[in-house]
Amino acid sequence: MSETSSGVSGRPDLKRFATWDTAIIVLTVLVLVVASVVVDNFGTSRNFTFMVLDLMPILLIALPMTFIIVTGEIDLSVASTLGLTSSLMGWFWNHNLSIEMIIPLCILIGAVAGVLNGFLITGLGLPSLAVTIGTLALYRGLALVVLGDSAVADFPFNYTGWVTGTLGDGSIPNVLIPIIALAVVFGIVLHATPIGRSLYAIGANAQAAHFSGIRVARTKFWLYVVSGAVCGLVGVLWTLRYSSARADNGAGLELAVVAAVLLGGVSIFGGKGSLPGVIAGVVLLTALQNALRLEDVSGQALNIVTGALLVLSVLLPNIVTTVRGNWQRRRLRQSAAR
Amino acid sequence: MTPLAIQKPRKPAMNFLKTRELGIVLALAALILYTTISNPRFLSGQSIRDNLLNTAILAVMATGQAVVVITRNIDLSVGSVLGFSAFTVATMMSDHQGLPMIVAIVVGLAVGAVAGLLNGVLVRYGKVPALVVTLGTLYMYRGIVYQWAGGSQVNADELPAHFLNFANDNFLGIPWLVLIALTVVGGATLVMRNYRVGRELYAMGSSPQAAELAGIRVARNLLGTFVLSGALAGLAGVLFAARFGTVDASAGTGYELNVVAAVVVGGVAVFGGSGTVWGAGLGALLLTVISSALAVLEINQFWQQAIVGALIILAICADRLVAVRIARSLRKRDAHV
After folding, report:
1. Could you tell me the maximum CA-CA distance found in chain B, to the nearest angstrom?
2. Secondary structure (3-state) at A2
3. Position B58 pLDDT exceeds 90
4. Residue of B nearest to A128 (CA)
C-alpha cells in the first residue's frame, strides 16, 4: 500500500481511482467499434437484440451486486435465487395461477431469499462469503425440489414474445427498457444520493461509518433484499426469454456477475468502484463473447480472456501503484540528497 | 462450565469432547444409525466401500482447500485444475498405454502444482486477493482445457487396464483411492498440528500482519499453500480419470462448491486461523454419506443440494456460537487476573 505524501494528496488518488474505470470504458467502446467493422453481422440490429438479451441477466444482477461489493460484502447466491424463482414460476403456472399474479409473487420470493441472506449476515454477524455459498447450494437445492429435472414451457406468448421482441420498427429490444430504467435508478442512488455515499463509507471502514451515524447493518440488510428481488425479476425474465422454467436456469451465473463487477473496477475489499465501469465491464464481456461466436470461435475460449481480464483488472492497478510509489520514493530521496 | 483456555493439563479425551469435529462425528453417527435401522444394507461391505471411494476424491481436494482457508485465503480454481489434470493424464495414458500408474500420479501432481504456483504468485506478488485470482484462474484453466480438448473426450476403452483397475484395486484390503485419501488427510493433519510450518499457517490466518512482523516467512508459506492445493487438485484429477474412465473438458466443473462446502461443514472458519484438516475430511465424508443415505432412504435425490446448503449455514452458525463462547470465557478469565 503506498500512500501519497500529504502535500499532493487528493489528486493522484483521484487519478488512480478513475484509471481503471476509464480504461475499461474506452476498451469497451474500442471493442464495439472494431467488432462492428471487422466482424460480419455484428452491427446488425438483429444481433444487437441478441446481445441485449444475453447481457440482460448479468447486467441486472450486477447492479445490486455492485452495491454489495462496494460495502465490502459479497452475494454468491444470486444465480441460485434466479433458479429458485424460475422453478417456482413453472410450479405456479402448473398450478393454474395467472401470470399477472406469478410475476410479482416471484419477485417477492426473491426478496424473501434476500431477507434470509441479510438476516444471517447482519443479524447473526456471519461472513457473507460463507453464508451465500451456503444459500447458493440451498436455493438451488430448493429449486430442484420444486421442479426436479422437468421443465415448464407453455407460458403465454404475449409475455414470452414481449421479452424477445422489439419496439416499433424493430431495432430496440423491449427488455432494454427495464434494463435502462433500473441502471439509471441504481446509478443515481449510488452516485448522487447520501445512501450511495454511505455505501462507499461502509466499504472503506465499516466501524468508522457506524460511528458516523450510518446504520451499517440495516443498510446491508436491505441491499441483500434488493439483490434478491432483482434476482427474482431476472428469474422471471430468464424464464420468459427461453420460455422454459427449469431448476438449473442460470447455474454458474454468479461467477460471471462477480467477474463483470470486478472487471468494471469495483474493489473486492469495498469502498471503490463506479456503476458506469461495471456496465462497461458487462458490455465488454458480452460483446467479446458475441463477436467470437460470430467468428465461430468456441465460447469456451472466451473463458481464458475473461479470467485473464479479471486478474489483470486488479493486477495492473497494483503494478502501476507500486511503480509510481517506487518512482516517487526515488524522487524524494534525490531531492533530500540535494 | 470451565473455560477452555485455562484448562492446564490437557487430557486428549477431554479435548476431543470439546472439539468442533465431535459435532460432525455425532451427526455422521446419527445419520448412519438412522439409515441402517431403516435399511440394514446401508452398512454392507459394498455400500461402505462405495461411500469411501466417493469420499476419497473430495477429501483429497478438501485437504488442500482446508490448508488454504486456514491461511485466510480461498482457492476456487480447484475444479478447473482437476479437469486440466484429468484430461492431461487421460490423454497421456491413452497415447502411451505402457506408462505405469506412478507416472500418471506424478504428472497429475505436477500439472496441479504449476497451476497452484501461478495462483500463489499472483496472490503474493501481484497483491491480488485470492478470491479474485482463483475466480480468474477458474475461468482460465477451464478455458484452456476446452480450447485443447474441443468437443473430444477420452473414453474408458482407450485407457490402459491397469490405470482403470487402480480405482478398484485393493492394497491390504483397502482400496488404493481410500488409502491415498487417508494418507493425504492424515499427513496434512499431522503437519498442521505438530510441525512448525503448520503452526505458522494458522498464525498467518489469525493475523497476516502479525505473522509477517513475527518473522514468519509468509511468502514461502503462502506459495507452498497454493502449490499444495493445486497439486492435490491435480492428484484428484488422476483419481477422477481412473475412477470414471471417461474424461472430457468439463470434468470437475462446479467441484469447487462441494470442496468449499466440505471444508466449511468440517469446521474450518472462512476467516482463517482455525479448523483442522481431518475436520474437512470428515466434512467430505458427511456430504458423501448424506447423498447415499438419501438414495437408501428413498428420499427424493433432489433434496441433496438443499440439505448441503442448510448444513453449510448450520455449520457457520455453530462456528459463530463457539467463537462467541470462547470470547466470553477469555473475557471472564481476564477479569479474574
Report:
1. 71
2. coil
3. yes
4. B270
Chain A residue numbers with beta carbons less than 8 Å from the beta carbon of B119 are none
CATH (domain of B121) = 1.10.3470
Q: How many CB atoms lie within 10 A of CB B325?
A: 13
Q: How many domains does chain B have?
A: 1
B176-197 pLDDT, tens digit each: 888 889 999 999 999 888 898 8
Of B122, B131, B316, the CB nearest to A134: B316
pLDDT reading at A86 higher than 80: yes
SS3 at position A12: helix
Amino acid type, A270: G
Return phi, psi of residue A166, to 5°: -125, 160
In a domain, residue B59? The reply is yes
- Please, where are the H alpha helices in chain A? 11-38, 45-70, 78-94, 99-118, 128-147, 157-164, 176-192, 194-204, 206-211, 216-242, 253-263, 275-294, 301-337
Distance between CA atoms of residues A129 and A225, nearest Å: 16
Nearest C-alpha neighbor of A318 from the set B1, B266, B121: B121
Whether the per-residue pLDDT at A171 is higher than 80: the answer is no
CB B261 within 8 A of CB A141: no
Q: How far apart are CA A86 and CA A160, in angstroms?
A: 14
For the four alpha carbons of B283, B289, B293 and B299, in that order, the dihedral sign comes to positive
Please identify which residue in the block is written with the cell numbers 481476564.
Answer: B334
Per-residue confidence band for B294, with pLDDT thresholds at 50, 70 and 90: confident
Q: Is ipTM > 0.95 here?
A: no
% of chain B beyond a pLDDT of 70: 93
**Burial of A324 from C-beta contacts in 10 A (0-12 / 13-18 / 19+):** middle
Here the cell at position A44 is: 446488425
**Residue B53 included in any domain:** yes
Are B147 and A301 an interchain contact pair (Cβ–Cβ within 8 Å)? yes
Judging contacts by C-beta atoms under 8 Å, the chain A residues touching residue B261 are 133-134, 137
Give the residue among B185, B208, B193 at the shortest CA–CA distance from B124. Answer: B208
Question: A155: which DSSP letter?
Answer: -
- Is B135's CB within 8 Å of A310's CB? yes
- CATH classification number, A14-324, choose in 1.25.40, 3.30.200, 1.10.3470, 1.10.287: 1.10.3470
- Does residue B15 form part of some domain? no
Pick from B92, B52, B100: nearest CA to B243: B52
Average pLDDT of every residue of chain B:
85
Domain range holding B187?
A: 20-331
Alpha helices in chain B (DSSP H): 12-18, 21-38, 45-70, 78-95, 101-124, 130-149, 161-165, 176-194, 196-206, 208-213, 218-244, 255-265, 277-296, 303-336
The answer to the question of residue B336 being in a domain is no
Under an 8 A CB cutoff, do A310 and B136 touch? yes
Place of cell 472466451: A302
Q: Are B183 and B175 in contact (CB under 8 A)?
A: no
| CA max distance for chain A | 84
Query: Do you know the residue count of chain A?
Result: 338
How far is residue A256's CA from residue A307's CA, in Å, rounded to a whole number? Answer: 10
pLDDT exceeds 70 at position B3:
no
